Amino acid sequence: MLSSFAATIGFFDGVHLGHQFLIDCLKREAQQRGLQSMVVTFGEHPRKVLCPNWHPQLLSTPEEKVALLRAMGVDEVVVLPFSAEMARLSARAFMQQVLKEQLGVTLLLTGYDNRFGHNREEGFDDYVAYGREMGMEVLAAKPLKQGDGCYSSSMVRRLLTEGDVVGACQCLGRPYSLSGHVEHGEQIGRQLGFPTANIVLDNQEKLIPCKGVYAVGIKSVNLTSPGGMNPLLGGMMNIGQRPTFGGHRTTLEVHILGYRGDLYGKSIDIEFVERLRDEQYFESAEALVKQMEEDARRTRIILDHELRELHE
Predict the structure, then answer these.
(1) What are 171-204's pLDDT values in tens digits?
(2) What does DSSP say about strands 212-221 and 267-277: parallel, antiparallel, or unpaired?
(3) What letter does residue 226 receive in the DSSP assignment?
(4) Which of 63, 199, 212, 286 is 20 to 30 A (C-alpha) from 91?
(5) How many helices (H) and strands (E) does the chain have?
(6) How does strand 145-146 pair with strand 149-150?
């Protein structure tokens, strides 16, 4: 016999503060009714399945999303494989066949703007009526307000494409991050006295913030300090085409402050702390080095401030 669950469903890209608020509401509703809590999500963005030529700009990879959802303390996280067959299900059929019969959902908490089922034609009143027929209670969660609007994944994407990584952090409840591995580049930074790690993303669908120079934290690197611990490092990252040297391809390069080891082939996680400036063209390598020295000075001040706040 299936356990009885209180569930919510959505793609939950980024697991931002609005998502976290919804999941906290779910846990309360489940506890009040003696039910287990369940978050139902999808491994692939439904739009990608329906429109194969569409390329998502994800705030979280599938693995990151599941880890973030599990960290919320729900009893179950179910990742459904979205398919063309599932897309053809009506909302009623989805509720009956998937939520009720397959997953044991007896209470469904919907987000304020969440719709599901074929062409998303039906709305909350329809879900309530279908639920009543099949013995499933359906509730609507209130939105978590942010200024004049509500927290949303589209808001976070807009902030990142504008370079506002501080605003994105405030919506996510944590710094936005990218994960990848280090590959050989043209070693221009090394020639300038600022060796950089050339980053190739592990997931090419992850959204890259707008071009510019950023103060970043290196959350985890597959290397060890003399004490044998993974160090928490700071650095400055350039996203752009290196116009001073005639570049045309966008690259992701990070200079790790105070680190001189070999990073090639290593995995690296980068957290965005603050945007320093636009990418610029410089008349000479000397002018660029002078600016990078200023970038490094500002980065140290910014990261020192962030670390002090964490420990206060």
Answers:
(1) 999 999 999 999 876 666 565 668 888 999 999 9
(2) antiparallel
(3) T
(4) 63
(5) 10, 13
(6) antiparallel
With CA atoms as reference, report the closest residue to 238 among 229, 247, 226. 247
> Coil, strand or helix: which one is 9?
strand
For 226-264, the three-class secondary structure string (H helix, E strand, C coil) is CCCCCCCEEEEEEEECCHHHCCCCCEEEEEECCCCCCCC
What are all long-range contacts of 299-304, with beta carbons under 8 Å and residues at least 24 apart?
299/215, 299/234, 299/235, 299/236, 299/257, 300/234, 300/257, 302/215, 302/273, 302/274, 303/215, 303/217, 303/234, 303/273
User: Would you say 37 and 78 are in contact if contact means Cβ atoms under 8 Å apart?
Assistant: no
Query: Hey, what are 169's tokens?
Result: 């952090």
Q: Where are the alpha helices (DSSP H) in 193-253?
A: none
Beta pairing, strands 36-42 & 5-9: parallel
Classify residue 144 by its DSSP letter.
P
Q: How many other C-beta atoms are found inside a 10 Å radius of the C-beta of residue 178?
A: 23
Above 70 in pLDDT, residue 220? Answer: no
pLDDT higher than 90, residue 248: no
DSSP state of 173: T
In this prediction, residue 20 carries a pLDDT of: 96
d(CA 195, CA 302): 21
| Structure-token pair, residue 73 | 């303390």
Whole-model pTM: value is: 0.89
Show the tokens assigned to 12: 């939950």
Interval 45-95: pLDDT, tens: 878 877 888 888 999 999 999 999 999 999 999 999 988 888 889 999 999
